[in-house]
Amino acid sequence: MVSPDVGMPDCKDSGPGSYEKGGVVSMDTQTFRKMRRYKALYILFIPIVLYLLVFTYYPFVRGLVMSFQENRLIGKRPFAGLSNYAKVVADPDFIASIVNSLIIGVVDMVLYFVLALLLALMINEIRSSTMRKSIQTIAYIPYLFSWAVIGGVWALIFDIKGLVNAILGFFGQEAVFFLAETSLARPLIIGMGVWRSVGYFALLFSVAIVGIDPTLFEAAKIDGASRLTQIRKIIIPSLSGTMKTIIVLLSIGVLTHFDEIYVMVNPANRRFISTLLLYVYETGILNFRMGTASAGATLVMIGTVLIATVMRRLTRYDEE
Amino acid sequence: MAHQLKRADKLPVALRIVGGVLLVFTVVIMGIPMLNVLAVSFSESAASDAPGLVLLPLPPTTEGYSFIWKHTDLSKPFFNTVYVSIVGTVLHVLFASLAGYILCQPDLPLRNVMTSFILLTMTVPNELTLIGIYAVNKDLGLINTYTGLIVNGMISGFSVFLMRNYFSTIPKSLAESARMDGASELNIFLRIYLRLASAGLITVGTLELIRRWNNITLTVTLISDMKKWTMPVVLRWILFDQSSTSGTAYIFANAKMAAVVLTAAPLVVLYFFVQRFLTGGALLGAIKE
Amino acid sequence: MKRSIVFLLVLALLAPVMLFAAGSSEQKTPVQEIRVLSSVTGGKDEAENKLFEEALEKATGLSITLEKVPSGYDQVLLQKLGAGEQYDLIYLNQFQMYTFASQGAIADLTDRIETSAVYRDNVSPDELDKIRMNGKLYAGFNKLEVFPLVNVNKAITDKVGIDLSKLNTLDDYYNMLKQVKQYMETVEGRKPYYPFFVYMTDVWDLQPWFSSVGLRRGVFFDANGKKYAPYVDDAALPVWQWLRKLYAEGLMDPASFTGKTGDMRNKMWQSQDIVMDSDWAAWTGLYNNNAKVAGTYPDKVDVVGLPGIKGPDGVYMLEQGGASLWAIPSNAKHPDAAFSIIEYFATPEGGRLLSAGIEGTDYVVKDGKLEFTETGLAHGKDHGAPFPISTKFDLNTLGTMNPGVRESVAIGKRADVVVAPMGYADGQLDARQYYDIMSKWMSDCIMGKVQAADAIKGAAAELRSKGIID
Is B256 inside any structural domain? Predict the structure, then answer.
């Protein structure tokens, strides 16, 4: 292990916060010197910028422009001002779908994060490596199937004659009509999301846990620290960077739940789980109203930017 | 050695029991879909359509698989998928690590602006770019080409930020001392960062490979030539579009699930194999040599 | 150092550029190439699609490119047209026709169709009226639409001792379901048994029951030009109440609200978990044919089609499926040629191509009769239109059909049966919203959360607030 005080100061000493603020506002000589030093990196960043401009920003701008135009698929699209936005915002269904999106999205984000972290920590405590690998693989498997397949199996499990009701029946409970029970609509959708994604995010944590410098554990043991203390004092702090990254990535997904809703929606649960993108899909895309769809999608994007920015600030993502 | 030491001590008994029970529970509920899909795929045609959850095929048969075999030639879509997924993933990981490396420099001026530039691309919903994506690919002549499937999605913020995270766990002192020895930025990136973050690279690569393998929306957008179809598109076609309402064709559930298994199986195998590199723990130890 | 950076940069830039170059010299179509965008219509695979294209070229004398998008068609249609691709002929459904027409995206074909000798000789004016929008025609036919009707498993009702010909009222059906439930639960010990499945999601399968009060699904214009929805009329109350009673007494499968049509069908023929549903006429045959494969036909499964219940006017009202159509985009380069393809699809020969398939591949002609090859049988005599639109097309030429289909299809031709489409309100209906509102209130009513009369009022109020009815 290279001792930390060799060479140039590493990121922890360099006070990234001060650079960030000073660097953008006033280009002092120090900043210039840095930029010169990192010239190569800026040059390497150019193809990335070009690529994203062509394949993401250009299509995005086209969509944005369409949100200010009338719903016309072929030919010239007359300018429509803000009328598409006005129509979307005035629709009570849109407002209802904001509420659904926020509830499902935020609870999903918290559960994905907490349960994935717990799962990764538990898996890390398994001593047999074959067991560890097998459990990780099984936990990850739901992610390999499409939502349509997952939705089908989920429906079978919670069917009136399904597995869960069979278990309930075994304990003398009456069968519950899970899929149409309105109070269970959101919990079931959230559960399905967790079910499919928890193994995925647990993997991201696992990889970070495995990367922790083993000498830290050796030192802790010499100090007589218990395993629980090691988890608290070594593993959790070492994961802070990964946690920040995952929180920011998850926050981007808060308002964009669609597929699991699409496969599970029914007349009984629709009003509780219809999300923003389902609204955009059904009122806009399904009806070939691209102006409406683009306006709705742009609003979703604005919301996502807000949420992501808040999370980025809260987690101090840009400071290491 | 260090690996064994790390695990020499244990958690309190009560916690271990709770953890064990939770893990068993997780395995059971996570295993059900896999078991169900497998069981149905190995059921007899008529039996496979029985309502309810099947966890054991009785009696087991490969009828579903042979039906799929005769019904659709899957070899071409399979190799199409392998080709576009692997080439696309390699390029994707290359760019993700390059961008991640750039963004993990803590004192890089304009870093926040660059981060925002990439972060913003992640917030655009697909619904907003449906037509734009098609138009770009049409203008670049990428419609009905494998190249189109490879080039689209070559850079994603998701992978960039994961790579940035993995790189940032590597001690900066290593780079600095190499820099003082006169190593070029490219050499530092290739020799130190890529090597030490190989677990991260493999993780991002695996996730991307799976995403590409299962990608339907993009394939449907770009490819209308059935010769160039990929597995998931063929799968969806078999699962949903073939049993048309007024038509006369009928496909039993065992064949449908056989198609699901055939599509997912390579990924499961790959994932189990790749895990060797993810659960190692020997990676950082390697620096010490 | 510098050299290596330049190298990497060049590599990064070149990779995509080289790849672009490889694919860019495509899609150079000759001047007279007719571009057709199709969904289900065409060959079953790439090779057969080529043959289909050739057959179509031979028949019309045109040079045709038939692009078939069997999966994700709506998305592709949106993307291609939205991005400015030019097609001469596109496949679309009836809803899409209304949307496209109101956006000015497809050409008005009224004059062409009304002066077409082919259409005059082959297409019934009734069918044309069903796709008019404000009196105008914007598309030609892909096929003749069939209809859903009541499907009952006679193997079970026979065992219970029920005479299907005596089912004439809502009460008759109620009693039948009750008897079946009792039989299955006591004699066969299958408890709980829910004999009736009605796919609620689009309030899709209810027409045979609303026929009893003479009402149709959708939105229509009344004499004063106001939009109204018959299903929320006060006269509809008995049907809402009837459905509510079925559910309360365990005669309706709870999965009706959450299940997919696939679940319903499996329960019908595979496990016989239900004895009755509403489904397409073609499915009467598919149920029996599947059961045949499983060895349960006709002892356990013998599905027959029934028209439902006669209304006050003495007719059975069944609903025709939404039309599948061909339209000419407003930016088409060769509308005349495109229309000649529309005409060809309306001829008996075109109908044969769309159903039986390609001569020499799917079938051969021997002594004036079609003899299907193995490929042809595997393709199920469906290349876009199992029932061609031409009145001169003889379905008998297609050979044997699945057991029960012929009888079910024949019901639609009876004098006391009226098969008509749902009310599209001249294309003004936002179907998605109508379905969502209706299925929500109906589900609440049936599951006992709201009284039937209140549910009707609630649904009407919500439809009105959304501008779906006046």
Answer: no
Q: What is the pLDDT along chain B (289 residues), one digit of tens a residue?
A: 444 444 446 778 888 888 888 888 888 888 887 788 888 889 887 777 776 677 788 788 888 888 888 777 788 889 999 999 999 999 999 999 999 999 988 888 899 999 999 999 999 999 999 999 999 999 999 999 999 999 999 999 999 999 999 898 888 888 888 888 888 877 888 888 888 888 889 989 999 999 999 888 899 999 988 888 888 888 877 766 655 444 445 677 888 888 888 888 888 888 877 877 766 543 443 343 3
Number of folded domains that form chain B: 2
- Same domain, yes or no: B53 and B150: no
Q: C428 and chain A: CB distance < 8 Å anywhere?
A: no
Beta-strand relationship, C227-228 and C218-221: antiparallel
Residue A40, CB-side half-sphere exposure with 13 Å CA sphere: 19
Domain's final residue, options B17, B36, B69: B69
In this structure, are residues B120 and B186 in contact, taking their beta carbons and an 8 Å threshold? Answer: no
CA-based nearest distance C452→chain B, Å: 31
B176 contacts chain C (CB < 8 A): no
| Residues B30, B101 within the same domain | no
Specify the 3-state DSSP secondary structure of C370.
strand
Residue C30 vs residue B275, higher pLDDT? B275
Contact C382 B138 (CB under 8 A): no
| C413, C312: one domain | yes
| Nearest CB partner across the interface for A44, out of C9, C254, C330 | C9
Matching residue, tokens 């390059």? B98
Tokens of B273: 């194999």
Minimum-distance CB partner of C13 among A47, A177, A180: A47
By residue range, what is the domain housing residue C330?
33-145+323-379
Residue C29: band (very low, low, confident or very high) from pLDDT cuts 50, 70, 90: very low
**Whether residue B225 sits in one domain with residue B94:** yes
Q: Which residues in C lie closer than 8 A to residue B247 (C-beta atoms)?
A: 282, 380, 382, 386
Which residues of C fall within a CB distance of 8 Å from A43?
5, 9
Last residue of a domain, one of B37, B69, B101: B69
User: What CA–CA distance (Å, rounded) separates A228 from A219?
Assistant: 15
Long-range contacts of C247-253 (CB under 8 A, 24+ apart): C247/C446, C247/C447, C247/C448, C248/C448, C249/C178, C250/C181, C250/C192, C250/C194, C251/C174, C251/C177, C251/C178, C251/C181, C251/C194, C251/C195, C251/C196, C252/C194, C252/C196, C252/C197, C252/C198, C252/C446, C253/C194, C253/C195, C253/C196, C253/C197
Question: What is the predicted pLDDT for the residue at C31?
Answer: 56
This prediction's pTM: 0.88
Contacts of C33 (CB under 8 A, 6+ apart): C63, C64, C65
CA nearest to B53 within chain A: A156
Cross-chain residue pair B123–A59, CB shorter than 8 Å: no
Range of the domain at B224: 74-241
Chain B contact present for C78, CB below 8 A: yes
| Domain of residue C239, CATH code | 3.40.190.10
Q: Is the CB of residue A219 less than 8 Å from the CB of residue A234?
A: no
ipTM score of the complex?
Answer: 0.86
Structural domains of chain A sorted by starting position, each given as residue range(s) with its CATH number in brackets: 15-66 (no CATH), 82-314 (1.10.3720.10)
**Nearby residues of B92 by Cβ (< 8 Å), 6 or more positions away:** B153, B154, B155, B156, B159, B205, B208, B212
Q: Which one is predicted more confidently, B51 or A251?
A: A251
Helix (H, G, I), strand (E, B) or coil at B98: helix
* A69 bridge partner residues: A79
Residues B45, B114: one domain?
no
Give yes or no: residues C351 and C424 share one domain. Answer: no
**Interchain contact B221–C (C-beta under 8 A):** yes
Question: ∠ at Cα C288 (C283, C291), nearest 5°?
Answer: 125
